[in-house]
What does this fold into?
Amino acid sequence: MVGMKIHIVYAHPHTASLNAALRDEAVRTLEGLGHTVTVADLYAMQWKAVADFDDFGPTENEAFMPAAGEAWEQGEIAADVKAEQARLLAADLVILQFPLWWYTVPAIMKGWIDRVFTNGFGYGTSRDWPRFGDGVLKGRRAMVVVTTGAAESHLSDRGVNGDIDSLLFPLQHGVLFYTGMEVLPPVVVTSAHPGFSASDYADAVKDLRSRLETFAETAPVAYRRQAEDYDDDKRLKPGLEPAGTTGFALHLA
Amino acid sequence: MVGMKIHIVYAHPHTASLNAALRDEAVRTLEGLGHTVTVADLYAMQWKAVADFDDFGPTENEAFMPAAGEAWEQGEIAADVKAEQARLLAADLVILQFPLWWYTVPAIMKGWIDRVFTNGFGYGTSRDWPRFGDGVLKGRRAMVVVTTGAAESHLSDRGVNGDIDSLLFPLQHGVLFYTGMEVLPPVVVTSAHPGFSASDYADAVKDLRSRLETFAETAPVAYRRQAEDYDDDKRLKPGLEPAGTTGFALHLA
It folds into this structure.
């Protein structure tokens, strides 16, 4: 399949980092496959990280969330936010690439999430807002590409850091799946520190390329859809899970 | 117990919000008990959210994490970061108060974490860096105070959002416990939207006051300490958990 559109949202402060090299490999690979790639390089763009009233036009609402909603209704949203929303709507695949800082995205990428997925676009205050499997970005796929200084064992099922799939759940389930996207398994590059060797890099590139070559047919993470598996209180209907399942595992079919 | 020091790190863009009212109640309550309170009001301070090379003095290191480490060694860290580190070191209790945005802290508070817990202070690159129960802030307590628009059922054990304890795990375990603090159960104010009533507010204040009055004797969350319960690969030693335990629950004793 050629001619698809991929939007890469990228955050790293060092222009010659491992992350930058992997981003360039991703762009080359995807363009080589005949796709069109856009990149939001958040540090290079000096992306405004902090969501505040300056993101909206004049508003009579003093409360933040209603003010955001009113600005959305009136089309009075900051231009940089509108541009990112347009890129997301145009994309077939959205990639978030970042170094894992304190078990989640760097602040500048959190600010991309906070500001782009504003009230009216990313979420609504109505209890029947379509989400978790439905939403504004339904029909698109998403994939996290993350580097971490931790070794693989530290992020494994019994690792002290917490297992990587659970650590990424609030982002993958709570942001990407929430807005309707199908979430592909993440590309995780571990032990990304000064000891990372040329051989480690070659392995990481091989893995990344393979995932990009197959993104359209890769099975997404099987998160349960709110519209089907949850009751009116948004609780998982009884009996759907294997006995004894707890925590985030409940939300996987 | 009187005369303790509490540092509140606070993030909300609206100066007359529910969060602001709860923060003021917290300050009044704690001062009324004879404690000393400092507040980092991140929006009011126009806290710099983005960690970048501007946080360091001149460095020959091009890579970000080594540059941060070198700046720490030489005392060349931004003044706002140093001031927050000093407040944390002086505190008996650290409170992080914020609205839950996309299942974690707002970007400005993530930027407080990214910048204050810099290489050399909050973490180190050595494999024997003391963490998860030990660390620079050992001896202190920490508590999250969070508001969320979601209803309680949405964040309950079977709620579609994910259960709140798991959602807060990367912050509570991965940041607060990582740096050595004992983490108290969070104060969670649900259904914080325009329908939040005077009676809801009174309940929230009552709960918050009670938690502040008892913070010194409240039992912390029983996260397992890395120094005792994990092997050299930082994996949980076999047989410590009830059969069938998976995910973040493994890290609770």
Observations:
- The two ends of chain A are 28 Å apart (CA to CA).
- Chain A touches chain B through 67 residues (CB under 8 Å).
